[in-house]
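[recover] target loaded
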């Protein structure tokens, strides 16, 4: 599963940027055609996608195979 999380993050960012390029400047007057909402969306979701990659890396390493059962194990 870790590999899937690591591969999913760049794909999400790629499709966000692809959608932004496709929708910005198409001559429309709706909010989806303006660059500011897309900049906000990409700015918010990029750190989330990076966190997904980090989560996938640790899952691939096996860091989540054994979770602590008590506070003494932390």
């Amino acid at each position: 599963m870790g590999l899937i999380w690591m591969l999913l993050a760049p794909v999400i960012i790629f499709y966000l940027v692809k959608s932004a390029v496709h929708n910005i400047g198409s001559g429309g007057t709706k909010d989806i055609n303006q660059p500011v909402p897309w900049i906000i969306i990409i700015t918010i979701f990029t750190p989330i996608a990076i966190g997904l990659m980090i989560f996938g890396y640790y899952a691939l390493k096996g860091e989540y195979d054994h979770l602590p059962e008590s506070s003494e194990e932390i």
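[recover] notes: Residues 2-64 form one domain.
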